[in-house]
Design a protein that fits this description.
Elements lengths: L9 H11 L5 H12 L9 H8 L3 H10 L5 H11 L8 H11 L3 H22 L2 H12 L4 E4 L5 H13 L4 E4 L16 E5 L6 H12 L3 E6 L12 E4 L4 E2 L2 E2 L2 H26 L1
Helix pairs in contact: 2-3, 2-4, 3-4, 6-7, 7-11, 8-11, 9-11
Length: about 280
């Protein structure tokens, strides 16, 4: 695709956004960060609404669209309306319907979380690239020790991975930050780091992943978008975007990806042991 041509698919859009985002001016970067975190909004919002929520002027949003190769906002929105719905459904309407009919009851709230959890799991099948998953499993299976880095809402994912690896006798270190004790010195060139973070990204996770890469460890990222800082560190990306209920996001898809990854790594390590034995 010519450099100045508009992206033809959502995947093309996010690939271009990931490549250009670090070099964009501050206001245009705000636009990119907002779209990366709220891609479902583009198809159903006006440029004024998106600009206000991103904290920029509409003119900045228009410049952002042109920077990505579109003639303007309408052309970018058309792409999202025709292509995006095939992979990530618009869930806002369904959630609002649940709220309207449930009158804010606990049962309605449960139904909302079940609904977005189901959709997040369905989306996982398209957001995780099969080749990247295979590469991640191969990398982790061959690692001496697997280091787990994930803070704030990502911590349940890494703590679960630590539990699963322990049950399978796979050497792993959970970097919890407890008592402000750093374990980065334990990361070696024969190791691998699984870094888990979602927008707004944890600086502690990014820093730990950066240190691990500098010490020769291979990186696997469980993150949400191609614009994640982890992708710029050369991590093998496994993308998972959790839908939310209000400001609250469950971890249905993230934990499903984590257990699938752990079991696949355990199976791959057993196969490697058998190969060495015979």
């Amino acid at each position: 695709m010519p450099q100045n041509a508009a992206p033809e698919t959502i995947d093309d859009f996010f690939e271009r956004l990931g490549a250009r985002l670090p070099d964009l001016p501050k206001r245009l970067k705000q636009c990119g960060d907002f779209i990366a975190a709220n891609p479902d909004r583009v198809a159903v919002s006006t440029v004024a609404e998106l600009s206000a929520d991103a904290g920029v002027q509409p003119s900045a949003f228009m410049r952002f669209c042109q920077e990505l190769g579109f003639s303007g906002f309408s052309e970018m929105q058309k792409l999202f309306r025709t292509d995006y719905s095939r992979k990530w459904p618009d869930y806002g309407t369904r959630i609002q319907t649940l709220k309207d009919h449930g009158s804010g009851s606990p049962a309605a709230l449960l139904a909302e979380f079940v609904d977005v959890g189901r959709t997040s799991l369905e989306n996982l099948l398209t957001s995780v690239d099969a080749a990247s998953l295979e590469e991640a499993v191969k990398t982790l299976a061959g690692a001496r020790t697997i280091h787990l880095a994930g803070f704030r809402r990502a911590f349940p994912v890494t703590s679960y991975l630590a539990y699963a690896f322990e049950k399978m006798d796979i050497p792993a270190v959970l970097h919890s930050g407890l008592a402000d004790v750093s374990l980065t010195h334990t990361i070696g060139p024969e190791d691998a780091v699984i870094a888990v973070t979602f927008a707004p990204y944890s600086e502690k996770t990014i820093t730990l992943a950066d240190v691990g890469a500098a010490q020769g460890a291979k990186l696997v990222a469980i993150t949400d978008f191609i614009t994640s800082p982890l992708t710029r560190l050369g991590a093998i990306p496994l993308y998972v975007a959790e839908l939310d209920v209000g400001a609250f996001r469950a971890l249905s898809a993230s934990l499903s990806l984590a257990i699938a990854l752990a079991v696949a790594v355990g199976s791959a390590r057993e196969s490697l042991k058998m190969e060495k034995k015979y």
